[in-house]
Structure formats: structure tokens, C-alpha cells
Amino acid sequence: MTTPLVLQTDFTEITQLIIAARARAVQAVNTALIDLYWQVGQTISQKIAQAQWGDGVVALLAAHLAQTQPGLRGFTARNLFRMRQFYEAYRDDEKVSALLRQLPWTHNLIILNQSKRPEEREFYLRLAIQEKWSSRELERQFKTALFERTVLNPAKVSAVLSQMHPDALSIFKDSYLVEFLGLPQGHAEADLHQGLLQHLKDFLIELGRDFCFVGSQYPLQVGGRDFALDLLFFHRGLNCLVAIELKIGRFEPEYLGKLGFYLEALDRDVKKSHEHAAIGVLLCASKDDEVVEYALSRSLSPALIAEYQTQLPDKALLQAKLHELYLQNAPSDNAPVDQ
Predict the structure, then answer these.
(1) How many Cβ atoms are within 10 Å of 163's Cβ, its own excluded?
(2) How sure is the predictor about 4, in pLDDT bands with cuts at 50, 70 and 90?
(3) What's the pTM value of the predicted model, to 2 decimals?
(4) Taking the CA of residue 179 as centre, how many other CA atoms within 13 Å lie in the half-sphere pointing to its CB?
(5) 3-state DSSP call for residue 339?
(6) Can you spell out the DSSP letters for 269-311?
(7) Residue 2 confidence (pLDDT)
(8) Are 168 and 161 in contact, with CB atoms under 8 Å apart?
(9) Burial letters for 305-325: b for 16+ Cβ neighbours within 10 Å, e otherwise?
(10) C-alpha to C-alpha distance for 276 and 165, rounded to whole angstroms
């Protein structure tokens, strides 16, 4: 039986209401569960701190719950200690503790177990909520050392881009991990381009949630000549087109001129009236930061220069560099005290 078009619209509206209600119900259950784990962790922490319980009592509690609450899952001795750790990690930070209830318990455990600093926990909590990462995607971000890379190497953007889009520094990265492409050492630009198209979903996750794919080898016609832009995206949050040019070698200053030309063509011939000026990204295999700084300092285009990396970084090395940075910025014990 064929449903009339007018009824299909009505049915779709009701279906959307059901889906939204289910999503709210799932979130409500998750919030209640996180609240429960917090309260259990708080009780255990306080009783141990007040010497009312020893650590061995937690195992007795787990056995008691297993006996008196048959079918209850997730309350083993190990998990009860995790609940205590969960509470103690966030109890003094009301701003962060409000985020916990927006993520599943699995996500919270990944962030709690793999983060080394409070600011790192907050970084991943906020991004996991914003990007809606699955637990697998969240694990990958830890493997790529996203926090360390973000702190040590913030995105290199032109002054024009910073002025036009102050949020750009928190959206774009200094380097993008494309290890999922499995590219060989001596790959060609066509290999990189084709690989990104074949793994577009993974590349979009690496770029960020608000990026939408528009086209590959996007045609631009200026005068009597035809040009092709490697990759074109749209960013919903920034409300603008994002052009990505691929280079398998190191960054060269002259690349910015061509990218600026493409941005001008996009703004004149492709951009819609309600959209902001297009942003350009040069994605290179390598770059010299001093050359990048010189090139961007006089650039009149809203552009940035980033690297693509075909292998996961040495996270231990990045952590050591970050530790050194924190030591350098730590207040000195011998610093004069204001009177």
C-alpha cells in the first residue's frame, strides 16, 4: 500500500518525535547512572578517609551486593574502586563535574584512566561531548596524543583568519593524523588524495564534527581558464567554505599565493550571500615553523598551514616535552612574594 505524500510528511514528523524522546530517555538513564556511581564513589571515599573502612571492606561490599542484588552488574570490587577514583578526581572541580553526566561511563573511564593532568581530562571531556566521539574514536584521540599536540603546537593561522574567526584556533589543528590511510613512505599526491576520499568518514572525524564534504577536484573557472581545488568542505559552525590543498612535500611560501587565488574565486563565484568568507588550509607533509610564521605574517588571506602525518606520533616523547614545558612555566619557589 502506497502512503500518500502528505501523510508521509506527517508520519516523518511523528517518527522524529519518537526518536527525540528515545534519545532523551537514554540520556536521562545515563545521567542517573553517572549520579549513582558518583554517590557510591563519594560514600566509599569518605568512609575510607574517615578510617571507618579499610580497603578490604570494598571487596566485602562487592560480595554483599552480588548476594543481595542478583543480576546487578557493574559493582565488582574493581569497579567500586573506580567509582571512588572517579569521585576523588573531580570532587573539587564543579565546572568539570557538570560535564561528566553528558558522557557514558565507558567514556568517563577512558578519560580518567588515560589522562595524566586535570586540564587533560577537561580537554577530552569537552571534545568528546562536542564531537560526539564513540569510545573507539576517543581511544584513537589518546593514541594520536591530541592533547599534547594541541598544547605544544597550536594551529598556525594568518592574522586575518584570527580576526575573522576567533574560534578558528580551537577548530583547526597544527597537524592531522591520517594513519588510517596506510600510505607508503614514497606516496604520490594522487595516493593521498584518493586515500582521503576512500576514507572520507575517518578524515571527517579527524577534521571535526562540523565539517561537511562538498567536493573533490572542485572546478573553478576564472577568465578563460579552468582550475581544480583539491578538496572543498563547509564548516557549519563557522558558516563558511573550507578549501584544502594537498602537498606531499614541505611547505613552500609560494603555495599561499595559489591558495589565496582559490579563496578569492570561491568568495566571488561560489559563496552564498549569507556565508562568511572562505578559509584555506594548506595540508603539507612537513613545514618549517619559522618559514610558516614569515609567510603568514603578511598574508591577506584567511588561511592556515598544517601537516599531515601518516603514522601515530611518539606519545612518550610528546609527554616528556609537555612535562618540560610545564616545568618551565611553573612558578619559581624563589620568586618574590608580593607584600
Answers:
(1) 10
(2) low
(3) 0.86
(4) 9
(5) coil
(6) HT--TTSEEEEEEEEEEE--HHHHHHHHHT--S-EEEEEEESS
(7) 56
(8) yes
(9) bbbbbbeebeeeebeeebeee
(10) 9
Rounded CA-CA distance 124/112 in Å is 10
The residue type at 288: D
Mean pLDDT of the 148-152 span = 96
What cell does 77 get? 570490587
C-alpha cell at 325: 614545558
Region label for 190, one of left (φ > 0), alpha (ψ between -120 and 50) or beta (otherwise) = alpha
Q: Which is nearest to 284 in space by CA: 261, 263, 302, 259? A: 259
- For position 337, what pLDDT does the model report? 46
Helical packing angle, 56-68 and 77-90, nearest 10°:
120
What is the rounded distance in angstroms from the CA atom of residue 106 to the CA atom of residue 260?
A: 44
Q: What are phi and psi of 283, to 5 degrees?
A: -105, 105
Tell me how far apart the alpha carbons of residues 231 and 281 are, in angstroms, rounded to a whole number: 10
Q: Under a CB-based contact definition with an 8 Å cutoff, are residues 219 and 228 in contact?
A: yes
Sign for the CA dihedral angle at 112, 114, 120, 123 comes to: negative
d(CA 129, CA 134): 10
Q: What is the largest CA-CA distance in the chain?
A: 85
The CA distances from residue 141 to 43, 102, 132, 174, in Å, are 33, 19, 13, 15
- What's phi and psi for 227, nearest 5 deg? -130, 160
Distance CA 121, CA 263 (A): 37
260-283 average pLDDT score: 97
Dihedrals φ, ψ of 37, to 5°?
A: -60, -35
C-beta separation of 179 from 146 below 8 A: no
Q: What gap in Å lies between CA 89 and CA 67, rounded to an integer? A: 30
- Gap between the Cα atoms of 109 and 191, Å rounded: 38
Strands, DSSP E only, in 182-224? 211-222
Residue type, position 19, single letter: I
Three-state secondary structure call for residue 153: coil
The cell numbers describing 259, all together, are 591558495
What are the start-end ranges of the E strands in the chain? 156-157, 175-177, 211-222, 225-235, 240-250, 276-286, 303-309
Whole-angstrom distance, CA of residue 33 vs CA of residue 27: 10
